[in-house]
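TASK: fixed-backbone design
INPUT:
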């Protein structure tokens, strides 16, 4: 069984930065691609970014390209999401998850082992 725990969310102003972390327990982390999703109130969960098992390739949704950076440290079983120049429309609960299909994958159905989420709120 694998557990994912997100942290690092908070309340910031537009233009600020945050770094989210996703800590994984269990043996699945190192061999699997992973991703970040977000869900705003009243909206469906949407893909943000993903990374291959070795960090060699990444995929971003257009709205975060140039502002967000995904990375991972397999030695620490941790994935990160550096978010710069945050906008009010980035406000959501952010989730990390492990891909159960092949990378790249942008649909939530292609992911398993979700974390509980961390709230990011960006004020204007």
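OUTPUT:
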């Amino acid at each position: 069984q694998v557990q994912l725990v997100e942290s690092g969310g908070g309340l910031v102003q537009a233009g600020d930065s945050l770094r989210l972390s996703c800590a994984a327990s269990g043996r699945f982390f190192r061999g699997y691609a992973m991703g970040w999703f977000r869900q705003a109130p009243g909206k469906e969960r949407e893909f943000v970014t993903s990374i291959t098992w070795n960090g060699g390739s990444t995929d971003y949704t257009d709205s975060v390209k140039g502002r967000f950076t995904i990375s991972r440290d397999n030695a620490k079983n941790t994935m990160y999401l550096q978010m710069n120049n945050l906008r009010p429309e980035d406000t959501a609960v952010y989730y990390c998850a492990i891909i159960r299909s092949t990378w790249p994958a942008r649909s939530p159905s292609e992911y398993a082992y979700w974390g509980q989420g961390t709230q990011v709120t960006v004020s204007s």
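COMMENT: The chain is about 0% helix and 50% strand.
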